[in-house]
Amino acid sequence: MYIHLKGLKIFAYHGVLPQENKIGAEYTINLRLKTDFRQAAETDRLDGTVNYAEVFQTIKEEMGIASKLLEHVACRIARRIFNDFPSVTEIRIELYKQNPPMGADCRLTGIESTYTRTDEHETTCHL
């Protein structure tokens, strides 16, 4: 069972170049969360699933912390989701920067990573 958040748009200040930290850029995030939402499906109650509005708030907060690398941002997002949403057992994150400053005609560039909870008390990222 998966919950998807696709096409999230967030403006943030990530990048290696100093101008990226001053000007910022728009980012697109696709997220897939593995969780068991059978209870919510049966009862029509939010407490049996993951609230995707709260997940979005978590992503927004982590995107607000400037980083050099998208890899680092994705790992932080995964760590927070595992910590804040104990029923999530796997996370796939696609994180893209719109119009990256690399001297090429490129609409977006980014990363994709899948993280799996290895221990219910673990809050670090494992690839």
Radius of gyration: 16 Å
Architecture per CATH nomenclature, i.e. the level-2 architecture? 2-Layer Sandwich
Going by CATH, what is the homologous superfamily? GTP cyclohydrolase I, C-terminal domain/NADPH-dependent 7-cyano-7-deazaguanine reductase, N-terminal domain
* Strand arrangement in the largest pleated sheet: 1-2-3-4
Our measurement of the CA-to-CA distance between the termini, rounded to an integer number of angstroms, reads 21 Å
Strand proportion: 25-35%
Determine the CATH topology: GTP Cyclohydrolase I, domain 2
Principal-axis shape: elongated
Could you explain how this protein is built, in words?
Strands 1-2-3-4 form a four-stranded antiparallel sheet. The protein is built from four helices and four strands; from the N terminus they run E-H-E-H-H-H-E-E. The relative contact order is 0.20. Helix 3 (52-63) packs antiparallel against helix 4. The chain starts with a strand and ends in an 11-residue tail after the last strand. With 127 residues, the chain is an alpha+beta fold. The chain is elongated. The longest helix is centred in the middle third of the chain and has 15 residues, at 70-84. The chain has one domain (2-116): GTP Cyclohydrolase I, domain 2 (2-Layer Sandwich), CATH 3.30.1130.
Report a brief summary of the structure.
By secondary structure, the chain is an alpha+beta fold.
